[in-house]
Amino acid sequence: MRRIPLVLAIVCFVGACAHDEAAPVAPQPGDVTLAAGGNQSPGTLANGKSIFRFDTFGDETFWTDTLRMHEVIRDSVSPVTALSVGLKVDADALPEAVKTAIQNNAVDLNAPATTVTLLKLGAVVGVRGQVDENGTLQRVGITCAFCHSTVDNSFMPGIGRRLDGWPNRDLNVGAIISLSPAVTAAQKAVYGSWGPGMYDPRFNIDGKNMPVVIPPAFGLRHVAREIYTGDGPVSYWNAYVAITQMHGHGFFSDPRIGVSVSNPPDLVSSKLEALRAYQLSLEAPASKPGTMDRAAKRGKDVFQGAAGCAGCHYGVALTDVNDGILHAPAEVGQDPAYALRTATKKYRTTPLRGLWNPPQLRGPYFHDGSAATLEEVVDHYVTLFGLSLTTQQRADLVAYLKTL
After folding, report:
1. Of 80, 143, 191, 388, which one has the greatest count of Cβ atoms within 10 A?
2. Separation of alpha carbons 163 and 126, rounded Å
3. How far apart are CA 166 and CA 52, in angstroms?
4. In the predicted model, what is the mean pLDDT of residues 362-390?
5. What does the pLDDT read at residue 40?
6. Is the distance from CB of 281 to CB of 397 less than 8 angstroms?
């Protein structure tokens, strides 16, 4: 069947992260938990949803003016290429005529112009493009959803309904940045080492290369400090990421880690309350049907008993961080290198939610992804603590973890 430009299909049918106070931003160590706090009114949630999905905080000045990603996209990034590096397409943003054309192989998914049209529709999850009347991509930026949303693949792999708050473990951020003509060969070597689902949120600060697993942004309502090292609450991290990583316009300062960024005008602080409210409304996914079987029920007993997991994983969020507890790297058998780059120099106990929900969520685990599977997680702690678990107990424990 002859393929047609996506823009024609559309024509036929018709006839797109820190602290809540004003800048400069600084962490508040006493702000231990935001559980169920803040304005949860429908209007605030709707505003927060829009910010999470579509607000770039003005970061086009970095992604366009500095990295020149608009040139890369319009010249060489087809939908096939975009999907191959983990970018996702929101099926609900596609007109029915476009969906039909894609299903009938009547849209050229190997053409960069098709990607530009998808951006014009606001259909590329986490990426915002400004397209002029001639169909030329002029500017591009990213949003919170870039890393912290994926899709359910209900239309086809990589295209489906949004899953806000789910980490995009297919997203190869390093490969995407490496496409920029402004990136040096040395930087590309670092970015190319990360791989899908990994990102180093401090590389551009200290020059060290230690990527971590992109974390979920769901299930935060009952978690005090949703950062691997417990530096601060989710509001703190929203501002850190929006300003120092997305390169949005605003002010962030934390003397504990020697970071002070001033990028006026402030397009971040006024949006943090609504953004936090929406994030706190995102529930963790339910376990896969059938996972709570006899093995999982036995595994729960192992979790609470012989394995000793409940010593640190307790409470509604299954973490002791809500009691202000952090752990030295040696205590949990983790490499201290990443923690030493942070404010606390320690690790928080991971809240256990959405651990296994394939195809989107199936590992890796630990902050650095050093455990590829839940079996490896269990083996790590068996060795670290010298546990005497039988093969059956280990299997049952993994079965239980898959229900969380």
Report:
1. 143
2. 12
3. 12
4. 98
5. 83
6. no
What number of other Cβ atoms are within 10 A of residue 249's Cβ?
Answer: 21
pLDDT one-digit tens code per residue, 126-175: 999 999 999 999 999 999 999 999 999 999 999 999 999 999 999 999 99
Whose CA is closest to 229, among 332, 155, 128, 123? 332
- Please say whether the beta carbons of 158 and 171 come within 8 A: no
Contacts of 314 (CB under 8 A, 6+ apart): 320
Q: Which two tokens stand for residue 76?
A: 């060489």
Q: CA 378 to CA 371: how far, in whole Å?
A: 9
* Contacts with 311 (C-beta within 8 Å, 6 or more apart), sequence order: none
CB neighbourhood size of 92 (10 A) = 12
Tell me if the pTM is above 0.85: yes
Residue in the block written with tokens 């020059």: 207
